[in-house]
């Protein structure tokens, strides 16, 4: 399993398993869904850089989860962004394909006004992960 697949799958699992979402969402997607009503979560494409050691393959990953909501109110999107932060923080360290998380840091959360299409919160994390030697 590639590091991209490992972190993306873990994030999707963490977000769909988050039973304590303050507001139900209409799905967790990898791309903007053509027909889903807002609110929904979109796991954006991660940016990976090398973070290897002498004897272990490693990646530093910049992840983003977009919280898409309808209407001009920011209260619900802020609450959902906080839920996303909690879900990512609670992800297990062991990922698929021998990868494991060694650190994760919230980089920033930002709410962006989308005009007539609603508001979006962008929740960004930095995750460092290593592959266990086989």
Secondary-structure map:
Elements: H1 3-17, E1 28-29, E2 40-43, E3 47-50, E4 58-69, H2 75-89, E5 99-113, E6 119-131
Parallel strand pairs: 1-2
Antiparallel strand pairs: 2-4, 3-4, 4-6, 5-6
Q: Averaging pLDDT over every residue, what do you get? A: 91
Q: Structural class of the secondary elements?
A: alpha+beta
3D shape: elongated
How do the SSEs run, as a string of H and E?
HEEEEHEE
Taking all Cα atoms into account, the compactness measure Rg is 15 Å
Strand fraction: 35-45%
DSSP, total strands: 6
In short:
This protein has 134 residues and is an alpha+beta fold.
What can you see in these coordinates?
With 134 residues, the chain is an alpha+beta fold. Helices cover 22% and strands 37% of the residues. It contains two helices and six strands. It has helices at residues 3-17, 75-89, and strands spanning 28-29, 40-43, 47-50, 58-69, 99-113, 119-131. Strands 1, 2, 3, 4, 5 and 6 form a six-stranded mixed beta sheet that branches.
């Amino acid at each position: 399993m590639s590091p991209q697949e490992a972190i993306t799958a873990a994030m999707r699992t963490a977000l769909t398993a988050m039973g304590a979402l303050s507001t139900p969402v209409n799905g967790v997607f990898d791309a903007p869904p053509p027909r889903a009503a807002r609110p929904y979560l979109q796991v954006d494409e991660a940016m990976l850089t090398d973070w290897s050691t002498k004897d272990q393959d490693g990646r530093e990953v910049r992840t983003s989860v977009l919280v898409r909501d309808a209407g001009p109110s920011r209260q619900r999107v802020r609450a959902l962004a906080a839920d996303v932060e909690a879900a990512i923080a609670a992800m297990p360290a062991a990922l698929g394909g021998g990868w494991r998380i060694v650190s994760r840091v919230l980089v920033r959360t930002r709410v962006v006004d989308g005009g007539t299409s609603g508001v979006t919160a962008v929740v960004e994390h930095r995750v460092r992960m290593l592959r266990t030697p086989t």
